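As a warm-up, study this chain.
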Amino acid sequence: MAADLMTAVPDQIRSGPGHRPTPGSPGSVVGRDESAFHRATDPRVFDWLEHVRPAAGCSHPIRLAGEVATIDRTTGQLLSAARTEDMPDGEIYKPCGNRRHAVCPSCARTYQRDAYQLVRAGLAGGKGIPQSVSAHPAVFVTLTAPSFGPVHTQRTDRHARAIPCRPRRHPEPCQHGVDVRCHHTHTDDDPALGVPLCLDCYDHRAQVVWNHSAPELWRRTTIALNRHLQARARSLGIPRVEQVTGSGTVRRVAPVKLSFGKVAEMQRRGVVHYHAIIRLDGVDPLDRDAVIPPPAGFGVDDLVAAVDHAAVSVAFTTRPHPAAPQGWPITWGDPGKGVDVRPVNADGDISDGKVASYLAKYATKSTEATGHVSRRLDGEVIDLYANDQGTHPERLIDACWTVGQHRDWQRLRRWAHMLGFGGHFLTKSRRYSVTFRLLRDARVIWRRTETGHEFPDQTDDTTLIVGLLTYAGSGWRTSGDALLANTAAAMARERQQIAREEMTTAA
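Now compare it with the structure written out below.
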């Protein structure tokens, strides 16, 4: 609850065109000099709380003004219209939808829960995915970046006991005279974690280039996985499948295909690594979108072998740069360390629920783990964040800006605030699972109808809701409004949690 109360205060509010509140309207605009006490003692406060309930827990809600119309789909007749001028504050409040926990804890929780449902549906079925996918071979894969220099880290022995970071009996000075030993046993909250033992020895440029190239490395890895599995099908004597395309032509395709869900996590050293669920499916010759088991003869061992092969064989060299005339080599981490492959099964330690929780957790992380707050940078503010002699994040941002001076590398400047990484933090193949949009639409319908329909196509489709809204601003209008709204949202979440616990106990 404490984190949710750290919301936008009045001096952070941005206003826009379209905001024309009507004085004296229900729950009319509260002046910025008024406190939570005045809002709480307003006799229409409960109307206001109900009005802002969809965005009550949001740190920076979007405020919209205008009109919402309900139209009959068949006749085009206007059935009803609601103006925001007649609503509390003269505006509609909408959650910001930011996925990063450091920016908006409430919206990040919603995103995390959606991510959990999305990932788990691809492993256990549900939400329109057949239950039979739970029997498909699937692996949980972690792919990491290579080393760009020693950093402070947490280490354990074979008994999972914490041990010192980098112990050495004798001093081990680097070329810059820095002793790169570390006898400390770092805790989870140690700010030294991820910091290079010698900042001058660390290859910051190679790291930001790797971050920038990671999506392409993943793309090539999926190609190598498919080719390895196709070769395995040929060795088993499984023929290719004749499949009818959308245009009616017939093509011969491989008898198996991969479906995956992937999350990019930003490590404390400022480099991304990937956690992925990779599932092996068969191919239906009559239905391209069908999710069916792979042919007999394929098992989880084939999937593990394909991932191991791709992780060590996929590599490429970037385009040349004055700082690296031969280009930078892009590979996964060192053999034996850069990839971790674990079969997913319902009864073992790597279950579908645990994997879904794990991926959903990291989907809300960003560069805050490195000590840098993700905001788009430009030439006016770059000097505030970039320093080639500064901290580790400052040197990484400086590397993005410096390498991005070259015309072929200008996109590094665009993604300097993300330390070079320009990919999505959660992606999936088309047939792996449902989409975020489907989950969000289902939630909207639930709120509007309170009937609990799971999918949008199960609702009455005779009316169309059209929003003629314009942006009015972002953030709560007063700090008192933020306090009241967030407190109400926190109390509602607490009641929901108690209800879940009671249902679990009763079951």
